Model the fold of this input.
Amino acid sequence: MILMDIAVPRDIDPETKKIDYIFYHDLDSLNIIVEQNLAKRKSEIPKVEKIIEEELDNFWEWYNSLQAAPAIKDLRDFFEEIRNEEVEKNKNKFAAEDQEKLDIVTKRIINKILHHPTIELRKADETSGSLDGTTKIGIIRDLFGISPRKNSDKD
Done:
């Protein structure tokens, strides 16, 4: 039998806990259980703080990448458009069997040209959205006349 005495003053004599098969609890024993549970929860706080810190870092990394990713895509699209125009203008100067090679070679050239700027923009972006990253993105856009795209999905 379990006896729970939560009355103040007590309704059950505490000596009843000496009787076999009787489990007596009062406010004091409940407070001990509450304090033990609280101590367990407090010991978990550093683990929870670490999880929160890791997730915040992941969030900021993702958030900051939102700025560079569109700029990188716009830059690559800009160069790809130029490449396509030039290939189309000049592909008749090449034999039919060489036109595919022309396409592959020009794509490789564009990728090599854009490799370092892409890496630098991503690195700048990873520095927690620093002014440096924003500045580099702005400079790239200004240098090549690439304006940020508007969200025209709703148009």
In short: The mean pLDDT is 85. The longest strand covers residues 2-5. The two ends are 72 Å apart (CA to CA). Residues 45-90 form the longest helix (46 residues).
